[in-house]
Structure formats: C-alpha cells, structure tokens
Amino acid sequence: MGKKYWCVPLCHNTSDNVTENGSKVILHRFPMSEKKSHIKRQWITRVNNVRANFVVNDSSRICGEHFEGPFTDQSLPTRFPSKPQKEVKTRRPLLKYELNVDNNNNIPPCDTQMSHINDTSILEGLNENVHAMHNF
C-alpha cells in the first residue's frame, strides 16, 4: 500500500488512530469524479487557507476529524487548526549612551597637532574605535 499524504498541517492522524467516540479515524480521498469537481475545488480552497500552494494528488487525504457531522459525498472540510504563528525573533534592546560634553570650553587645549603625528597606526586604531562605537 502506497504512502498517503495528509494535507492538513499539524494533523498526524492515521487510520490506526481512534476518535473521541472510539471509532477508527477515516482518511477521505479528494473527490475525483467530474460530477464532483465543484466539491473538489472547495476542498482544495479550504486546504489552501491553512496550507499555501497545496497541490492535490492521488495520495492526498483529509482525515475525518476535519469534517463536522456524518460524512457524505457533499461534505466539506471545516475543522482546521489555527494557522501556526511565525516565530518572532526578539532583538536585544538598544543601549543608550549619554555623551558628557562640556559646552563651556573648560577642556584644555591639546598639545599635539594632528599634523605632527607620523604613526598612521595610531590614527587607524582611533578610526576603528570611533567606527566600532558608532555601530554599537
């Protein structure tokens, strides 16, 4: 016997499962006859509401737990699990830093002029530090 494909997400029933009232779970095929093509389209539409881009094939099944009341050839699946929520990734909170700037010009003047610095590695290190602080 070939593998049957359940098309309802989060449903893992098999024909070995038992319902709440003690009967075995029935796996229903999609209607295949031309006379029931309108029913088949409705089944597909309803499954597409919970499973995007679903394509029916000969092995596709919907278990009886997704139908209300006694199953007939006009029954439509109506019981579906709510859509799984996408996992929301939380971001760490941004840290705010206050810059203590002395606007009173009480900062003593620098003794070294930038033009006198010949060691470029110092400037590169400063530039990396400023860049790292800016992106933090």
UniProtKB/TrEMBL annotation:
- Keyword Zinc listed? The answer is yes
Q: Which domain of life is it from?
A: Eukaryota
MF terms (GO), sorted A to Z? DNA binding; zinc ion binding
Which protein is depicted? THAP-type domain-containing protein
Q: Which keywords appear in this protein's UniProt record, sorted alphabetically?
A: DNA-binding, Metal-binding, Zinc, Zinc-finger
UniProt xrefs under InterPro entries: THAP_Znf
Pfam family, any one: THAP
Taxonomic lineage from the root: Eukaryota, Metazoa, Spiralia, Lophotrochozoa, Mollusca
Occurrences of domain THAP-type (ranges) = 1-96
